[in-house]
Write a structure and sequence with these properties.
alpha+beta; four-stranded antiparallel β-sheet; 6 helices; elongated
Length: 206
């Protein structure tokens, strides 16, 4: 096929996309189809990221292999489900899924960095981004969500915070022990000085 995709399975020939500035009518449709196919191939071949479309009703409308790797859902299990299934119960109770869609609808995007749920109920810390999708006529078509598992980084951060808190507590305990020792020594010195002062008083009288 000229100007773009190969008819054979597997991919894209080393041909550049048609120049949209020099194309009109049906040729522009070819450009759009080319770009959509390129995007589809990228999404289908990315496994470290879950990338999926959420429709305006808040339901999952697409799937990629990263969804199964990260969330544990096959395509038939995932598409058509409410997008909130990946949120924790406490976040669903706090209306976090609705807030995310409303924010993306109002500003064009919404970062989503929080704990999420896999199909098996286990939790993982995800760095996510919800992006508003519009077509060529600027009509809102839905949202695309991109997620990555960042649990190891989160756990490392929590471990650093735990060590810092432990160090802070140990330092405070050491400082308290030093103050207690100083107060004890001051008390002992005072008690020792009192008999000595009495002896000096008697000596002055002799």
């Amino acid at each position: 096929m000229a100007n773009g995709m190969s008819d054979t399975p597997g991919g894209i020939q080393n041909q550049s996309a048609p120049d949209k500035h020099s194309q009109t009518g049906n040729e522009r449709l070819q450009v759009s189809a080319y770009n959509q196919r390129v995007f589809q191939l990228v999404v289908e071949n990315v496994e470290d990221y879950a990338v999926f479309v959420v429709d305006l009703s808040g339901n999952n409308a697409s799937w990629n292999p990263g969804v199964e790797k990260l969330l544990g859902y096959g395509e038939n299990e995932f598409v058509g489900q409410d997008a909130s299934i990946i949120f924790t119960p406490e976040d669903r109770a706090a209306k976090a899924p609705e807030w995310e869609l409303e924010t993306a609808l109002g500003t064009g995007r919404c970062e989503d960095v929080r704990w999420h749920l896999r199909k098996d109920g286990s939790r993982f810390w995800a760095n996510g981004l919800m992006i508003l999708l519009k077509d060529e006529t600027d009509e809102v078509r839905g949202f695309v969500k991109i997620m990555r598992d960042n649990t190891l980084h989160k756990q490392a951060e929590e471990e650093r915070e735990r060590l810092l808190e432990s160090e802070k507590a140990a330092r405070a305990e050491a400082e308290a022990a030093t103050r207690a020792k100083d107060e004890f020594l001051a008390l002992i010195a005072h008690e020792l000085c009192s008999p000595l002062n009495s002896v000096k008083g008697w000596n002055s009288m002799l």
